[in-house]
Amino acid sequence: MKERVIILTIFLITGCCVITTAQTRLSREENLFRTYFDSAPRPAMDSNPSRYHFAGADLAKFKKDSVSLSRGIALLKMGKPAAALPHFQRSVENMKNYVSNASEWYLALTFLKLKKTEQAAYLFHKVAETEIHPYQNEAEVIYQRLTRPGKR
């Protein structure tokens, strides 16, 4: 009887350690996402911010796209990347003539969270190559980690 208790105890302790280790070992994508996700987007680092003064219909469209971006960020923060994806895709597409910096960044993070590594790497590379992008340095680090085998 004593042997059974000892064996059962060892089995339970070993099982708990294995479960804990498995839970703490995150995928490369999840690790990068947790490191770089921030729900507060950075402002554009534009040398000519006056060109972003809108009038009439353009202002209404810009506000609508900004709301879409905010909704996407909120969904991503809640752990719902699939639901956030269309919001970021819409923002990137609609805001490409204005300020799509934050939209591209969050779209890349969404692809990362969804483990769509090729799409994420493409966007991180694009952001890293964009002059004065507010996420340029971080995007370069993530891109390098995604494209270099064995690096985490």
TrEMBL record:
SUPFAM superfamilies: TPR-like
InterPro entries: TPR-like_helical_dom_sf
Protein name, per record: Tetratricopeptide repeat protein
Organism for this UniProt entry: Ravibacter arvi
